[in-house]
Design a protein that fits this description.
- The complex is a heterodimer of chains A (about 110) and B (about 110).
- Chain A is about 0% helix and about 55% strand.
- In chain A, strands 2, 4, 5, 6, 9, 10 and 11 form a seven-stranded mixed beta sheet that branches.
- The model of chain A has no long low-confidence stretch (mean pLDDT about 95).
- The chains are: A mainly beta (about 110), B mainly beta (about 110).
- Chains A and B meet through β4, β5 and β10 of A and β5 and β10 of B.
Chain lengths: ~110, ~110
């Protein structure tokens, strides 16, 4: 079991460019979460999928952020027109539905210059 | 909006000592409190959960919950340098959502 896999581990973009972050959940897990981690805000919930369906995106900044889960083996978080304030570690986690242990990936560190 | 406050922000203990971390939630509608630990360069890893009043022990880690005051603590006995990490308290509710606290940075001096 390789755990939750996130790629890339580090991404550097220029202001205004697009960034796509990838997550491969643990095989068999039906729940996928995205969190953002910064020094100031800590760990913030972004969005949640269950059985590939979007359930809760209440933490997503509305205009430039979008998340998808086209199949059970991967999810993407896309940030359009990146801004310096988007610089953070983006963490993906998965779990079995109904089980409240989250298994996190190592994260993608996004740096917007 | 639910808030989860942790204290202290940082803590230093000698190797073999006891580390005590605190957490308070503002939301009575919780199902579980969780403790997660994050080493540098890694994602958070679940340590233990607690939902009943009183103590729950797992190895060197003991969690204590007081539901009336919405306060949970984590005590690490015989602290090891490998315990040096960020510790997060999290509240689980709504059937799926974990809301994390502000974190406590623990340093165990060898």
């Amino acid at each position: 079991n390789a755990g939750v896999i996130q790629t890339p581990r580090h991404k550097v973009t220029g202001k205004g460019q697009e960034a796509t972050l990838w997550c491969e959940p643990i095989s068999g897990h039906s729940a996928v979460f995205w969190y953002r981690q910064t020094i100031v805000q800590g760990l913030e919930f972004l969005t949640y999928f269950r059985n590939q369906a979007p359930i809760d995106d209440s933490g997503m900044p509305k205009e430039r952020f979008s998340a998808q889960m086209p199949n059970q083996s991967h999810s993407t978080l896309k940030i359009q027109s990146t801004q310096p304030q988007d610089s953070a570690v983006y963490l993906c986690a998965s779990s079995w539905t109904g089980e409240n242990t989250l298994y996190f990936g190592a994260g993608t560190r996004l740096s917007v210059l | 909006q639910q808030k989860v406050q942790q204290s202290p922000e940082s803590l230093s203990v000698p190797e073999g000592g006891m580390a005590s971390l605190n957490c308070t939630s503002s939301d009575r509608n919780f199902q579980y409190f969780w403790w997660y630990r994050q080493h540098s360069g890694e994602g958070p890893k679940a340590l233990m959960s607690i939902f009943s009043d009183g103590d729950k022990k797992e190895g060197r880690f003991t969690a204590h919950l007081n539901k009336a005051s919405l306060h949970v603590s984590l005590h690490i006995r015989d602290s090891q340098p490998s315990d040096s990490a960020l510790y997060f308290c999290a509240v689980y509710n709504m059937g799926y959502k974990l809301t994390f606290g502000t974190g406590t940075s623990l340093l165990v001096d060898p």
